[in-house]
Amino acid sequence: MEELRSFLPPSPPSSRLAICEPVIYLLSDEGEIYTVKSDRRSHFLTPNKVQRLYSLGLYNTPLMAITDEGELYAQTFTYPFCGWHQGSVSQLVHIPLGIRVSDLQVGERHTLFLTPESHVYVMFTGRYGHTTWEEGEQPPLLKLSVPPVIMIAMGVNDRIVLATEQGIFSNTLEKLVEFQLSPAVIPGRIKRLAFPGHRVNVITEDGELYTFNPSHGICEQVLIPDEKVNEISCIFGVSVILTGRGSIYLMEVGKVPRLITLDERVKEVRLSAFNVGVLTEGDEVKTLRLQPLLE
């Protein structure tokens, strides 16, 4: 097997869907945001042209968006998971970070930002830092002392995973100065990185899916019958896999992935704590309850 540093990922995945329970948001090709309920779509007040949507997938946690200029916009809440101050839930407000953002990960008590210069910043919230600030006030950020980063992911228990040219680093927020290099060796160029729980999921450029524990690094391939994997969405140990043929599979820790049967091909999927949001090739948004799929 070749070393990881020979295989580095391209741009972040498309993020046109976001679920902030109980609301699903859809980003149009023109960069405008809509709320989706049944077959109805309502225009959501959109700042500038939005490039990608982000959410944690829990109740009453904020929708976040990155514009083409790398600016961050978000709904605002007083809530222990994300710590935003009370504000409007019907529009996005500008959060002046003082940096350009190319990708982000919404965590339970913090948010992780990746810049075009391959730097990583943490915005602490909840029990780790500020829970309120004045609108327009720049929130406190901490720059991580790590090698140039190409891809970021976060899991439960405040665990951070960073893909760099030197390999994959991981740690918890409580030990940010002690990032550990994982011994994992991935047999292919990394396309996507996801972290649903205690194991990291990696999609290679060849459409193969691998999973490993970042501590011991033993890498195992997850086989999807006769299909290549395009994307993966994860939360709390559950993952939904999107294949190149537009099929979706549900994967739980330690179990074989199961096909979810739909009438249409899928081009994007997003997982929340209670639902699976699906964007079909016909640009239709469908919602599948997660619990019946797990039974």
Write structural notes for this entry.
By secondary structure, this protein is an all-beta fold. The termini are far apart. The N terminus is likely disordered. A hairpin with a 4-residue loop joins β18 and β19. The strands form seven sheets. A four-stranded antiparallel sheet has the order 1-2-3-4, with no helix packed on it. A four-stranded antiparallel sheet has the order 5-6-7-8, with no helix packed on it. It has a domain of 131 residues. The protein is built from one helix and 27 strands.
| Cα shape | globular
> Averaged pLDDT, please?
80
Strand content: 35-45%
- Strand ordering within the main sheet: 1-2-3-4
Low-confidence stretches: 1-10, 77-88, 126-133
**What percent of residues adopt helix (DSSP H or I)?**
under 10%
Number of beta strands: 27
Helix segment tally: 1
- Topology order in helix (H) and strand (E) letters: EEEEEEEEEEEEEEEEEEEEEEEEEEEH
Please give the radius of gyration in angstroms. 18 Å
* Structural class based on helices, strands and sheet pairing: mainly beta
Q: Describe the main β-sheet briefly.
A: 4 strands, antiparallel
Distance N to C terminus: 38 Å
Features:
295 residues; mainly beta; four-stranded antiparallel β-sheet; 1 helix; 2% helix; disordered N terminus
Write the layout of secondary structure elements.
Blueprint: E1 17-20, E2 23-27, E3 33-37, E4 40-44, E5 50-54, E6 64-67, E7 72-74, E8 93-95, E9 103-106, E10 110-114, E11 120-124, E12 142-143, E13 149-154, E14 159-164, E15 167-172, E16 180-181, E17 190-194, E18 200-204, E19 209-212, E20 219-222, E21 229-235, E22 238-243, E23 248-252, E24 258-260, E25 266-271, E26 275-280, E27 285-289, H1 290-294
Antiparallel strand pairs: 1-2, 2-3, 3-4, 5-6, 6-7, 7-8, 9-10, 10-11, 11-12, 13-14, 14-15, 15-16, 17-18, 18-19, 19-20, 21-22, 22-23, 23-24, 25-26, 26-27
